[in-house]
Amino acid sequence: MSTPNLRELSVNGLWHNNPGLVQLLGLCPLLGVSNSAVNALGLGLATLLVLTCSNIAVSLVRGVVNTAVRLPAFVMIIAALTTCIELLMQAFTYELYQILGIFIPLITTNCVILGRADGFASRHNPLIAAYDGVMMGLGFCAVLVVLGSLRELIGTGAVLANMHLLFGPIAAGWTITLFQHHEGFLLAILPPGAFIVLGLLIALKNRIDHHLAERARAAVQPQAPSASRRVRVTGVID
Amino acid sequence: MALPEISRSMLRNGLVLALFAVVTVGSVSLLRQATAERIHEAERAAQFRVLQEILPPDSHDNLLLDSTRDVQHPLLGYSSPLPAYVAMRQGVPTAVILQVLAPDGYSGAIHLLVGVNADGRLAGVRVVSHRETPGLGDRIETGKSDWILGFTGTSLQEPEPSRWAVKRDRGAFDQFVGATITPRAVVRAVHNALQYFDANRETLLATDALQPAPEDALERPESVREPARHSRAGSDAASDHLPANQPHVQDGASR
């Protein structure tokens, strides 16, 4: 298997093969905890950490485990890592741990993690696997945070409320109120809002991709020979 | 004796999996031991913060977390005994914080802490957890509105017993625009807690046989067996949840 270059991995994780917007993996936590920015960031970071560590661990043991028992072995690694994260969150961010509740243990069942473990980490060296884990995790985390912030903003008129649950007392004043006397558009915070906002985000991503492809095609037509380099440059904007 | 190929691979795979189980379980239990102390502290700190909101530190000189007594009564809503926290100053009990369950919230039970001063007046009420609708019923939280602070200073006599209800039921307490069931449930639960306190004042405020609170003293309602929900009339349910973007109508007045 060819070694993918780092740039390709980043673009894949963050944009072209984004777990939240393109692969649509891990939708349960994505929709479940994205009702505020702090919840989204908390679970996003936890997922990022589990994903990176599980990629490294799976990559390290890829010579030991054969194909017949690889899935149970990977699941054991992921479950153990998730439990570790859960214990750490309980110890250091207790209130956030209580709010996220069942969604922390559910990280184990996030298909992004098993998918990357089986599909990528088990075939690459630990460094590359770790980098892929970070990029995929960042892509997932970014979608979660954007979704959480949008829903919080539309639903309550403010973003970044209760950030002190994650960052301690310094973050107490981080709340940004954009609409002072906003009555709150409840739909955004309720579960249907998660589906609607995610749908709009996917539509927006497709729109941007379409637009970029159009521009690339327009750039190719007038002067075909020198165009290839420009196509690449415009193609990786994210 | 050479094993057949298939048994050899089964044995090998089994051993690999067993090794994985040992390593993963081992690392989890190591971390568990390492964080146990810290988690214990975090749990106590979280409990302490909530209790302190009702009874500020200068109102008592004992450690609330170490002076509890298990209580259970139908008026409190819980089906299992839960600790009540006794506050004292110079050995004299000044207040008690009861854990109370309002079983008839709009979406399940509401877990409350009700602080009652020795003279029967409320020291304060706080919501520990609930599943009320965001934006409507969740105004019982202190972070969302000051409504729940309105209980402070009230007692069984003040307002008079017939006025222990929301305004819509000709009582003394505000309801929320678009949500009547939630405040109604909280008012009823607080009133029940006061009645329980009134009937059991001596036992509650006794200074003997106090014990430290267990770590999970402030249970979340999900983990407590919930009493059956009260059935509610259709008109109530309709008025409780207005569509989010509809202009708010002052209910009660129009009916």
Task: Walk me through the structure.
Chain A: It is an enzyme of class 7 (translocase). Chain A: This is Ion-translocating oxidoreductase complex subunit E. Chain A: It is a multi-pass membrane protein. Chain A: Its EC number is 7.-.-.-. The complex is a heterodimer of chains A (about 240) and B (about 260). Chain A is mostly helical. Chain A has helices at about 5-15, 25-30, 35-60, 70-90, 95-100, 110-120, 125-155, 165, 190-220, 225-235, and strands spanning about 160, 175. In chain A, strands 1-2 form a two-stranded antiparallel sheet. The relative contact order of chain A is 0.16. Chain B has about 260 residues and is α+β, with helices and mostly antiparallel strands. Helices cover about 30% and strands about 15% of the residues of chain B. Chain B has 3 helices and 5 strands; from the N terminus they run αβββββαα. Chain B has helices spanning about 5-55, 180-205, 235-240, and strands at about 70, 80-90, 90-105, 110-115, 120-130. The N and C termini of chain B lie far apart (about 90 Å). Mean pLDDT of chain B is about 80; it is low at about 220-255. Chains A and B meet through helix 4 and helix 5 of A and helix 1 of B.
